[in-house]
Design a protein that fits this description.
Order of helices and strands: EEEHHEEEHEEEE
Shape: globular
CATH architecture of the largest domain: 2-Layer Sandwich
Number of domains: 2
CATH class of the largest domain: Alpha Beta
CATH topology of the largest domain: TATA-Binding Protein
Strand content: 25-35%
Structural class: alpha+beta
Number of strands: 10
CATH superfamily of the largest domain: Kinase associated domain 1, KA1
Radius of gyration: 35 Å
Length: 179
């Protein structure tokens, strides 16, 4: 029996219960704090389930990443997925180990994402970045063994026009220039 915060036990001994002791006892038994804690855990699990992985072949919007297309004209010059070939403005030729081509693409992509794409992807195909020239357009020069590759990126409204030019390196000669 509790009277004015004093509890009388069956043997007649009086003991005082403090509010903290009573609160602690309720929590140990799963009192009012337990449902709030469980509710918080369930909400965090439910909200984390709302995040999904990007679909295959899409660009991650939080990063500056583009993925290469599954197949491209030259097996060692990747093209980002968001670009479409403009066939009437493109040509390519391969014979006796020599390759020449001018491939024009158009896509709706941030131009800086494309620059980053080629900075990352071309070394994977043994291309060496020589330089990047930025003057509204972006011009990226790559080379390797006996070939050069020039990638030109030109803004066109909300799109980017990309031209990939591939050809053999010029043969250096020891002859003196003609005067």
């Amino acid at each position: 029996m509790i009277l004015n915060g004093v509890q009388r036990s069956a043997n007649g001994v009086n003991s005082r219960r403090t509010p903290n002791a009573e609160h602690r006892t309720q929590n140990e038994k799963g009192g009012p704090m337990r449902p709030v804690f469980i509710l918080l855990i369930l909400c965090s699990i439910a909200l984390s389930g709302c995040v999904s992985a990007p679909k295959k072949g899409t660009t991650l919007q939080t990063g500056n990443f583009l993925e290469p297309q599954a197949s491209f004209r030259f097996s060692d010059v990747p093209v980002p997925t968001k670009f479409k070939l403009v066939p009437e403005a493109s040509y390519s030729f391969e014979a006796s180990g020599m390759r020449v081509g001018l491939l024009k693409y158009e896509g709706k992509v941030d131009i800086n994402q494309v620059v980053n794409f080629y900075r990352e992807q071309m070394p994977m195909y043994n291309w060496r970045l020589l330089n990047v020239i930025e003057y509204g357009e972006r011009l990226m020069n790559f080379d390797r063994d006996q070939e050069t590759c020039i990638i030109t990126l030109m803004p066109k409204g909300s799109n980017v026009v990309m031209t990939i030019t591939l050809g053999p390196k010029s043969q250096t000669s020891s002859k003196k220039p003609i005067k």
